[in-house]
Design a protein that fits this description.
Blueprint lengths: L8 E5 L3 H13 L3 E5 L2 H9 L8 E5 L7 H11 L5 E5 L4 H9 L4 E4 L4 H14 L12 E4 L2 E4 L4 E4 L2 E3 L3 H11 L5 E3 H9 L7 H15 L9 E4 L3 E4 L3
Parallel strand pairs: 1-2, 1-3, 3-4, 4-5
Antiparallel strand pairs: 6-7, 7-8, 8-9, 10-12, 11-12
């Protein structure tokens, strides 16, 4: 398990008190510190305060009173782009899942969720936020037609302008750009970025690529850097 302080802190945003209390108990038993909020408004206020400084991951229910989980996710991503977000959905509806991922969630679980699944997803999300391993001598900083990727500093700039990439999107870019021209399947990316070797969902990959393209491409609909290879996956250009 990743340890940043005495123990990782999770923000649990869930309006159902019984579900929230049960999940909090499970997380504390696994060694996590837990902050809780019953509404999106409470969660955003907490993140803006002193207690928010120690939060390392958010678990967010989509069906919240008042501000819904989609909007909460967008606001969290705008305020804290590097904070991993795992969304909870009771319905497992494809449209809800895709919308949540497009809003900036890194992963999702469908309720009712078992303790081992939730804890495994949290551990995987925290690992994605860790420093990325170096690729070897001379590979720390590469310039791809104006898109500069610094693997040592974990920074990306485009024509000299720094880009704020959340950990999941950054890891997708690092994986693809490690071997320009090589096609990586969605399953390969799920395994290497999300640690999902079983029951993986390719929508996680497609949504992350879509968010990444919105940041690094001049025209996301006509990508130059991250190209789709139909029926297989993605490869890194540039064209």
């Amino acid at each position: 398990m990743r340890i940043i302080g005495p123990m990782p802190h999770v923000l649990l945003i869930e309006d159902d008190a019984s579900v929230r209390d049960g999940m909090e108990l499970v997380l504390r038993r696994h060694g996590y510190g837990v902050e809780t909020a019953a509404t999106g408004e409470q969660a955003l206020a907490l993140l803006a305060g002193e207690r928010g400084a120690r939060v390392e991951l958010a678990v967010l229910d989509l069906m919240l009173p008042g501000m819904d989980g989609f909007e909460v996710c967008r606001r969290i991503r705008a305020r804290a782009p590097k904070l991993p977000v795992i969304m909870l959905t009771a319905r497992g509806d494809d449209r809800d899942i895709v919308t949540g991922l497009e809003a900036g969630a890194d992963d999702y679980v469908v309720k009712p969720v078992t303790a081992p699944v939730l804890e495994a997803r949290i551990r995987a999300a925290l690992r994605r936020a860790e420093p990325y391993p170096r690729q070897g001598p001379g590979a720390d900083r590469t310039d791809h037609a104006g898109l500069v990727i610094d693997r040592a500093g974990l920074t990306v700039t485009k024509h000299g302008v720094a880009l704020a990439l959340p950990p999941t999107e950054l890891r997708v870019l690092l994986e693809l750009s490690a071997s320009p021209g090589r096609v990586l399947t969605r399953d390969q990316l799920l395994a290497s970025v999300w640690d999902h070797t079983f029951l993986g969902d390719s929508r996680l990959v497609d949504a992350a690529v879509g968010r990444l393209r919105a940041k690094i491409e001049d025209v996301p609909a006509r990508p130059r850097y991250v190209q789709t290879v139909r029926g297989f996956g993605y490869r890194f250009g540039p064209l």
